[in-house]
From TrEMBL:
The keyword Repeat does not apply. Keywords: FAD, Flavoprotein. It comes from Oleiagrimonas soli. Gene3D superfamilies: FAD/NAD(P)-binding domain (3.50.50.60), HI0933 insert domain-like (1.10.8.260), Translation factors (2.40.30.10). Residues 4-389 form the RsdA/BaiN/AoA(So)-like Rossmann fold-like domain. It comes from the Bacteria. The lineage of its organism: Bacteria, Pseudomonadati, Pseudomonadota, Gammaproteobacteria, Lysobacterales. Pfam families: HI0933_like, HI0933_like_1st. This is Membrane protein. Its cofactor is FAD. SUPFAM superfamilies: FAD/NAD(P)-binding domain, HI0933 insert domain-like. Residues 187-337 form the RsdA/BaiN/AoA(So)-like insert domain.
Length: 392
């Protein structure tokens, strides 16, 4: 017997949609081309899954339509998902800035979703490739490596292009176009930035040096979090966040002392400790190798008394807006998310249903809604999956 609903994609959004629809009495089949479901859940948060963020608001998302996510996020909140986690006895903790992680393992989140699906009678099939999808009367006919299937409602939860080594593909975008949907340009988001030429030469040997908190600024947005130098460029949470707003050719400005009036601090230190070398002083506020490099590149390495007050003022200003010229990003290979995707103008914000094809739905990362780093993308997956699950 054919199911009522087929969900293509066994990630966070797809499993949530399936279990909600199954709880409503719908016969649901989940199809995933990988050999197991929930692979991105398993790898997330260093294996502990940053499964939501207590501070989730629509302002934490990028989309051509910033209002689109409001309905789904309001109807399924972080506290709704926390209630499910607690129902299954999964221990969790808040790490920072509202980010919730499993105490033990992300495997527990996948097991929770699979248990809920099992209780709702959801049929999950892995290692199943979709070869063709056609409109068939009021429903859909699928040709798969598990044989032909048909359904009344079809949900596309196939994700984006990030981390192709885990099976990411453009399947959802291709199918959306076939059924008359616009797909906005995609690019890697939440991704390390790369440097080249002289810009890389300046920093490449600082690979592994981390600054616990900076403020990284692009032309459109600023984020306070950690910075990490890599052998190819810059990374860390502040850079991953900024990468979603950064455009090629833009300079990223780094405030190395976000809680300090750097010019006033340097001036006071000159008065109190005139014989201290500048690099020694900066090493108290920054990693030693970084402080030395900044002095080598621009500031000099003299005792403080040999710097004029105006010169220290200038150094202070530069420490608050240090320019780094990125040439590109690491791309989809290491990106946590895909920006862009299925245009929300063609979807219902309440149900995630297609406005062009009755019975067709798009949820999760395949849609042009992308969250910040810190559990926001999982919350969008749960919320959009929940919205579709109530409608299919």
């Amino acid at each position: 017997m054919n199911p009522d609903v087929i969900v293509i994609g066994g990630g966070a959004a797809g499993l949530m949609c399936a279990l909600i629809a199954g709880q409503r009495g719908r016969r649901v089949t989940v199809l995933d081309h990988a050999n197991r479901v929930g692979k991105k859940i398993l790898m997330s948060g260093g294996g502990r899954c940053n499964f939501t963020n207590l501070g989730t608001t629509p302002d934490n998302y990028l989309s051509a339509n910033p209002h689109f996510a409001k309905s789904a996020l309001a109807r399924y909140t972080p506290h709704d998902f926390i209630a499910l986690v607690e129902k299954h006895g999964i221990a969790y903790h808040e790490k920072e800035r509202g980010q919730l992680f499993c105490d033990v393992s992300s495997k527990l989140i996948v097991r929770m979703l699979l248990d809920e699906c099992a209780q709702a009678g959801v049929d999950i099939r892995t290692s199943c490739t979709i070869e063709d999808v056609q409109r068939d009367g009021d429903g859909f006919a699928l040709r798969t490596t598990h044989g032909p299937m048909a359904c009344a409602s079809l949900v596309i939860a196939s994700g984006g292009l990030s981390i192709p080594s885990m099976g990411a593909s453009g399947f959802g975008y291709d199918l959306a176009r076939r059924f008359g949907h616009a797909v906005l340009p995609t690019r890697a988001g939440l991704v390390p930035l790369t440097l080249s030429g002289k810009h890389l030469d300046r920093y490449s040997d600082l690979s592994g040096v981390a600054v616990p908190e900076v403020e990284a600024r692009s032309a459109r947005k600023a984020f306070r979090a950690g910075l990490l130098f890599t052998h190819r460029g810059i990374s860390g949470p502040s850079i991953l966040q900024v990468s979603s707003y950064w455009q090629p050719g833009e300079t990223v400005h780094i405030d190395f002392l976000p809680d300090t009036d750097a010019s006033a601090w340097l001036g006071a230190q000159r008065e109190a400790h005139p014989d201290r070398e500048l690099k020694t002083l900066l090493s108290e506020a920054l990693p030693k190798r970084l402080a030395q490099r900044l002095c080598e590149l621009e500031f000099g390495q003299r005792p403080l008394r040999q710097y004029a007050v105006a010169a220290l003022d200038d150094i202070g200003r530069r420490l608050k807006a240090w320019p780094i010229v990125a040439s590109g990003s690491e791309g989809y290979r290491t990106a946590e998310v895909t920006l862009g995707g299925v245009d929300t103008d063609g979807l219902s914000s309440k149900t995630m249903a297609s406005r062009h094809v009755p019975g067709l739905y798009f949820i999760g990362e395949v849609v042009d809604v992308t969250g910040w780093l810190g559990g926001y993308n999982f919350q969008w997956a749960w919320a959009s999956g929940h919205a579709a699950g109530l409608a299919v």
